[in-house]
Fold this protein.
Amino acid sequence: MIPDYAQPFFYQVPWRSGSVHAGEHLGLQRGPGDEFSKHVSLVDYPDARRLDLRQTLRDPYEQVQVRVFKQEATTPLYAVCDLSSSMQFQGQMRKLDIAKTVAASIACSAHDNSDLFGMVCYDHAVIPYLSLSPSHHAHQSFATITQLDDFRSTRKDGSGIVEAAGLLGQQKGLVFWLSDFHLPLSLIEHGLNLMANHQIIPVVLWDPLEYQRLPRFGFGNLQDPETGEQKTIFFRQAIRAQFVEMFEQRKQALDQLFARFDIRPLYLDGHFEAALLSDYFEQLIH
């Protein structure tokens, strides 16, 4: 059963799928479809239903000609979910709950378009029971995604992205990397290189309360959610402004890194609607 929060979105792939399974995208394999490919002799492609009488009469070698079409094909969609400690941050919603909603929308969209859905979850390593190989099994997809409700992680970094990237299939697909990207830039770059065979959509999960809900004046304790290290800081207006500036600088650094890979990220500010991803793909087309 598809959960209510799983809303489909529009997407399109800009490449030809090499899959042999019929789907909704432009493919490389010949077969039943609407896209004309070429004429060949009936000997080479013995399907009399595709006979082209006009082309046969024109053939100088007097061979019977048939029309060959390219079959629409499937493509895999992946949700690569960062479950490191920082994803437990609770703002308007827990970041991990937003990731769950996005993953469910990806699964819903894939199954609506007869595509395959796969998921790889990780913190410092891949989490097997929260990971799925690409398949058409909608029930299994949503049952696994629902388990994110109960997941808790403390003092775990996101270095498992290296292992997670190695679990993606060889067939080119859409990879939605769901993370707050509070990772070293070198690790993010390494992950992008490992997933370069796919089209990557970084979905950056930030919340305004991460850098706005701070003491206005006085001492406050901050804990690095990835390492558990605590620091005591005396807050004043200038310090609060520095935190805002730090996030802005981080965004610029991420944008520059993604641009080097010709990737445009999608930033979510504490909430998600499927229409945001539809708009994202519409802008890619135009």
Observations:
- The radius of gyration is 24 Å.
